[in-house]
Amino acid sequence: RMAYREKSRVALVIQSWFRGCIVRKRVAKFRNRITRVQALFRGYFLRRSTGARISELRARILLATSRAQEHMRLGNRTASALHVLVSCKQLSVVLHAVKDLDVSTRFSSVCCRRLVDEHRVIPVVLALIRSCNRSQPHVELLKHALNVLCNVCVYETLRSAVFGCANSVDTLVELLQIFRDKDEIFCKTLTVLDLFARSRERVWEMHQMKEQVSRLESIRQIVARKQSVEKKYSEKAGKPSAKSSGSKLSLAHQASTLLDSVLAKIRKATPTMDA
């Protein structure tokens, strides 16, 4: 009798488990159907509510394309901007040219390659960066010039050309020291260095630049000290306004993370790494 009860209990457990599997499968199938119906309804509702807006935007794009003149195309804007960089010294004209390069390199890999392969403009951009001071027009110029470097360095095949320019790392590290209180420029500069450090061969070359590594370590200590002081001050003064300080804190945190990442890669670099 005990054996019969044990077998009955085991059979009930198996039956319960099997029935549960069947029910769970049915419920999952039913949920999938509900999700599909919801997705279809949401898609229909969104298309119905935004259809007119999308049609209007499409018409505006077609109209802008039809009205586009030859000098407005990215390739021609790039060529014109490169000519200005090489031949002109007026700040407002150079700033407009760098803005054009920022746009063209952001949207076109061909324009990025033209900067590196055909026109050899990267040394000119680096020289332009070195010539900037802390005035507002120069800060604006720096932002767009660093954007150009970031856009070009997005492509692995072009990073080595930028890195190989004379004093490229020295220029960027010096920029970090001068503008360590300008979070946006600081962050953009570190982004370029972080892109450099993604190659084993390049990060080993950076590891061998003892003076620049020492300067990066010093910058890291200054940034950490500054963050500590700001944290203590904010705790004493109370919580800062989210609207006024949210983006600034976000940029500062991003810059600190990038700096730690670059230094970690440089410290871990070994001569046995291959490109």
How are the elements arranged and paired?
Blueprint: H1 2-67, H2 74-87, H3 91-107, H4 109-118, H5 122-130, H6 136-153, H7 156-163, H8 168-178, H9 183-196, H10 200-208, H11 210-237, H12 242-268
Protein described:
This protein is mainly alpha-helical. The chain is built from 12 helices and no strands. α3 crosses α4. The longest helix is centred in the first third of the chain and has 66 residues, at 2-67. The chain starts with a helix and ends in a 7-residue tail after the last helix.
Entry keywords:
275 residues; mainly alpha; 0% strand; extended
Content-based structural category: mainly alpha
Residue-averaged pLDDT? 82
The number of strands is 0
Number of helices: 12
| Amino- and carboxy-terminal Cα gap | 75 Å
The helical percent reads over 70%
Radius of gyration: 29 Å
Q: Judging from the principal axes of the Cα atoms, what is the shape?
A: extended
Query: Which strand-content bin applies to the residues?
Result: under 5%
Short structural description:
The chain has helices spanning 2-67, 74-87, 91-107, 109-118, 122-130, 136-153, 156-163, 168-178, 183-196, 200-208, 210-237, 242-268. It has 275 residues and is mainly alpha-helical. The model has no long low-confidence stretch (mean pLDDT 82).
